[in-house]
Amino acid sequence: MSFKKNYFYSVLYQIMLTIIPFITTPYLARVLGASGVGIYAYNLATVSYFVMFGKLGYSNFGTRKIAQVREDRACLVQTFWDIYCSQITCFLIAGIGYFSYCFLFPIENKRVALCFGLLVISGLFDIDWFFFGIEKFKLTILRNTIVKIATTIAIFLFVKSPEHVWIFAIVYSFGTLLSTMVLWMGIKNYISFAKPNLKEIPKLIGQSSVLFVPILAMSVYRTFDKIMLGNMSNIEEVGYYENAEKVIYLLLGFVAALGRIMMPRMANLEVSQKAEEGRKTIRKSMRFIMLLTSIFSFGIAGIADTFVPLFFGEDFLATAVLMKYLAITIMVIAWANVIRTQYIIPKSKDIINIISLSTGAIINLVLNFILIPQMGALGAVIGTIFAEVSVVLVQCIFVKKDLEIIGYLKDSILFVIFGLCMFIVVSQIGKHSSWGWITLGLQILAGAVVYIGLLFAILRKDIKQLINL
């Protein structure tokens, strides 16, 4: 399947992922309240660490390995079974660890924690990395689309009060389990059975663990901050932070969609020794993603004060300030994602990934310990901003000799200017209007007119090149 078709399916799926939370998030915010949202966010953050250990670095490692050997059928089959058996080993250990935590420790909301245990079990069946490696995105995306829609319907049918947090946990977790199992129905079209080479399992676990270190580091400021908030502040602050972060990461899903598609392609180019083509592709990707995320970043900051009370309810007014600050990270994370998924991982320069993300994790931990007790969720947001910026800076220092960092910056300046102009107009409309959804609609319309107008006025000749990857 061509790149454009892959990206089309990936973006279509991301649009669905954006629409569904627009339906479920305000419903859950009102039905569960800040405390209920905080409870599921805290427990979801906890189980995520066990799932992360089970996955180790297989999402990226498996995709890269499969992309490198996909032209050799026999090697592809053997590689799949060797990687999958090593993944099962890790998830069995993770499962024992998680359920021991649930039963042996005096944790609050134990029923919710046990329901989320289905997420650990689902990891035993997760083979997304194989289909990403052979660039068969349509199957995984269609599967996830059907399951997400079914999960959304189940939430509205069964989650009716703050006491139903455990029901939400079951619906969420069972949907994930089902989506991983469905993929096995299509695996026979690409893979036959081969006896795993048991001697390879320790070796593969070791190789994959190299990619686990940066994932663990990243989780400190993507997941562990909620655990710290729950313990160092209160569960309501977790709820405010969860909803602010949810909006930001929904938008960043469009960035992840590009990285998910480009990573196996760049790994294959690396094996084929097409370095120059790879560098040109990275610059094109950077221009496109900076155009996209400048709209997201300045747009969400401009509408935050209008959007939050309409979407989450009056109980979540504190979320608006958090969203404005977190919006800063959208362009920063996008920049880092392009370099990581299209250069660092395909070229197996894993040490750069480890150093950059570990730096971010350390900075985030230190700032969280200092700021969360005094500032609550806002302290966690500030820690995240500094962490994300530090990751990008470290990456750029390491890759500046091989990539056109200055060129990327020059390409991005105009998009930042366009975004600032859009932000000023959008935020002023919000300050001087109080018509609820009408105001929000006017802000979005005005923002689109300003940004697109500037884009066509200044970069008219380059628009086709900007969107042509």
Polypeptide structure, described:
This protein is mainly α and 469 residues long. It has one domain. The protein is globular, with a radius of gyration of 22 Å. The model has no long low-confidence stretch (mean pLDDT 85).
Q: Ends: how far apart?
A: 15 Å
Q: Please summarize the sheet with the most strands.
A: none
Query: What Rg do the Cα atoms give?
Result: 22 Å
Number of helices: 18
- Strand tally is 0
Mean pLDDT, nearest integer?
85
Q: Flag low-confidence runs.
A: none
Shape: globular
Count of the separate structural domains:
1
Percentage of residues in strands: under 5%
Secondary-structure-based class equals: mainly alpha
Helix content: over 70%
SSE pattern: HHHHHHHHHHHHHHHHHH
Write the layout of secondary structure elements.
Elements: H1 3-55, H2 58-69, H3 73-104, H4 110-115, H5 118-122, H6 128-133, H7 137-158, H8 165-182, H9 200-232, H10 235-271, H11 275-311, H12 318-326, H13 328-344, H14 350-375, H15 377-399, H16 405-431, H17 437-459, H18 463-467
Helix pairs in contact: 1-3, 1-7, 1-8, 1-9, 1-10, 2-3, 2-9, 2-10, 3-9, 7-8, 9-10, 9-14, 9-15, 10-11, 10-12, 10-13, 10-15, 11-12, 11-13, 11-16, 11-17, 12-15, 13-15, 14-15, 16-17
